[in-house]
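Fig. S4 source data, part A: sequence.
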Amino acid sequence: MKRILYAWELGGGLGHINAFLPIARALEERGCVITWVLREPGPAAVLLEGRGDTLWDAPYFTGQIVGLPEPQLSFSEILLRRGYMSADMLTPLLRDWRAIVERAEPDLVIADFAPTALLAARSLKRTCVRIGTGFCCPPPMEPEPPLMPWLLPAPERSAESRQLVLSSINTALAVHGVAPLAVQGLMHLADDDIVTSFPDLDHYTHRGTPHWGVVLGGDSGVAPVWPEAQGPRVFAYLKAQQAQTLPLLHALRRRGCAVLAYCPGLPDTERAQLEGAQMRFSDRPVAIEAAVAGADLVICGGGHGTVCAALLGGKPLLVAPDITEQGITAHKVTALGAGLMLLAGEEGRIEQLSARLLSEPGFTRAAQEFSRRHTSASQKQIVDAIAARCVQLAGWPTRAAI
């Protein structure tokens, strides 16, 4: 029996858990026991309901960092806002992650957007693997690549950000008697990277490791139940707090679309105004592949899993990003010609964009072309290959610390 520690530290929503669940099942079939350490255990418990697994809260930085420049140009600039601004912030975070790893005694740590968990595992000589989208697995390069290469570079600013992160890491490691990193990029080294994406959607264009393909979550979520209206079918997965959400939903209703929406956090008063024969809300996450199969258009914030599901299903997208990662994904979708992007503050363009996506066949053709390029491996084959690699890694002996 192999002990697996799954660590999720940064980000939000259900995408991380939803994507890992099929892999977790495949690992259990191979005799592994999984301990889940989760950034948002409350919402994730919906998907883990009835499993009886060990579930712990993930340590994460809860402070507020103000005064840093926007937009965030590199992964280091993201980390500065997540506890890496100073050793005083990072040291207790690393201490808490080390305590979790020591308590779990895992044969393998799987770090899903969990840089501090990765540092803790390596500092304790545990075998570890990074898993996730390209955004979650920055290449271990020095200097680090930009997040948004279409923006003008700022080399001095980037170098300062890397140095701040490196100084915080090395001071925190020294507290535990661990040797320092020579350069900041080494913080991303693991025994392997399992990048669950495709080259055309990778947030980093130059990567030396393979792409394993997306894991969609399969049967996670309830079956879609569409409204009875006869208009174009639109599946919308949007968070209530996004600026674009309510204007989008009202515009779709005015247009006469048949909308199935999952909008966690939407107030009852807003839902009551919208729900009816043309629009139905799901109280639980919806099985994404089934929802895409029944839709003519998918609208989402730009979560990687939802975007991949839509493209693999050959359906066009309207992406309304809320954070940096989603914005980069939205740019990738528009570059493919398979969708359009709606930024906050551009709500006046909703009617125009939705009309184009529902009437111009080029968007659907581009999505179908993506599907043809990337459906050679089934979800079961992708999941089994990842699980087999994890089991192999779990059998490795422990190694030297960082």
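Fig. S4 source data, part B ends here. The chain is about 40% helix and 15% strand.
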